Amino acid sequence: MKNAFLIILFCSVSLALKAQDEAPTNPDTVKVGAYVISVHDINFHDKEYTIRFWLWFVYDNPDFDFSKQLDIPNAKSIEPPEIIMDSLGDKAWAIMKMKCTMKESWDVQDFPFDTQHLKVQIENTLFDNKLLVFTPDTKGSQYDKAEAIDGWEIKNFTVKNDNNDYETGFGDQSTDSQVFSAFKIEMDIDRDALGLFMKIFIGMYIAFLISIISFTPHPSELEPRFGLPVGGLFAAVGNKYIIDSLLPESSDFTLVDTLHSLTFVSILMTLIVSAISLKLYDNQKEQMALHVNRTGSKIVVSLYVVANIIFITLALT
C-alpha cells in the first residue's frame, strides 16, 4: 500500500513538472516610442531618404540591450546611435538618437502631385515575440512640426506594434519560421507641388509654344513651318530626359510620361497640319490651305490644353 502511494505521488509530481515546463511563458513587454526630428535627403532616383529620430525603451528584463540588439530591416544603413541609459522607477530606460538611411519604393505615378508613405520598422534581433513584445507609446510619440521636413507636409503620423514573420528557423531545425515583435513609425508626406510642377514642365510647355508659332507664317514658307516644330520636339525630348534622371525606373506610365507623350503627339499634329497646308498651296488651293491652317491650329491647341487639364486634374484627385 505504501509503495503504491509513493508511485502515485511520483507520477503526480512528474506530470506537474512536465506541465510546468510545457506551459507557455508570458513575454516581457517593452514600452517604446519615437520622436521624429527630421526627414531629409529624399532621393527618388536612388530610392532612399534619411531620417533622424529619438527612440526610447522602458523595460524590466536586464537581458535586453537595445544598443546591441536593435535592427531596422528596411534601412540601407544605420549610424551608431547616441545612447542614454537611465531608469524610471524600477524599470530600465534607454534613450537612443538614431540616424538611418532608409530604402523606399517611391510611388511616382502622379509625380509631382504625389503622396508618399514612409515606414520605419524596429525589431530586437535576439528575442522573438515569445520573449519580447513591443507596446507603442502613442501619447509620447510625435514629430517636430516645424523642422521635420522641408517642402512636404506630414500627415497620418502613427506608431504601432506588429509582428514580422520570418519564414526560416535561422538554422534551428525544430522550426521553419520565427516571429519577431516590431515597432513601426508610419507617416504620409504630401507637398504643395504647383511650384515644382512649373519648374520641371516649363521647358516642355515652351517647346510646345515654339512649335505652334509655326502656324503663323504663310503655308508656303517651308523653313519656319517645319523648323520650329522640329526644334520644339528636340527641346521636349531633352526636358523629359532631365525629369527621368530624377525619378526611379518604373514600368508604369506616369503623369510625366503622359504629358510628354501628349506634347510629342501635338507637335507631330502641328507638322501634319503644315504638310497638308503646303500640299494644298502647291496645288494652287491657297484659300483652302489657309483654312486648314487656321482650323488645324485651333484643334491642336484646344486638344492640348483640354487634355492637360484632364490629366493634371486626375493626378490631383
Number of domains: 2
Find the structural class using helix and strand composition: alpha+beta
| Uncertain stretches | 4-24
User: What's the story with the biggest beta sheet?
Assistant: 7 strands, mixed
Helix content: 25-40%
User: Mean pLDDT score, rounded?
Assistant: 87
The top-level CATH class of the largest domain is Mainly Beta
Number of helical runs?
6
Stated plainly, the CATH topology of the largest domain is called Acetylcholine Binding Protein, Chain: A
CATH architecture of the largest domain: Distorted Sandwich
Query: What does the overall shape look like?
Result: elongated
How much strand?
Answer: 25-35%
**SSE order, as H and E?**
HEEHEEEEEEEEEHHHH
Termini separation (Å)? 86 Å
CATH superfamily of the largest domain: Neurotransmitter-gated ion-channel ligand-binding domain
Radius of gyration over C-alpha positions, nearest whole angstrom: 33 Å
Number of strand elements: 11
Can you walk me through this structure?
- This protein is α+β, with helices and mostly antiparallel strands.
- It has two domains: 25-190, Acetylcholine Binding Protein, Chain: A; 194-316, Neurotransmitter-gated ion-channel transmembrane domain (Methane Monooxygenase Hydroxylase, Chain G, domain 1).
- The chain is 40% helix and 31% strand.
- The protein has helices spanning 2-22, 66-69, 194-212, 222-244, 255-282, 286-316, and strands at 28-43, 48-59, 70-71, 75-78, 82-88, 91-103, 115-124, 132-136, 142-143, 153-166, 178-190.
- Strands 1, 2, 4, 5, 6, 8 and 9 form a seven-stranded mixed sheet that branches. A four-stranded antiparallel sheet has the order 3-7-11-10.
- Helix 3 packs antiparallel against helix 4 and helix 3 runs parallel beside helix 5 (255-282).
- Mean pLDDT is 87; it is low at 4-24.
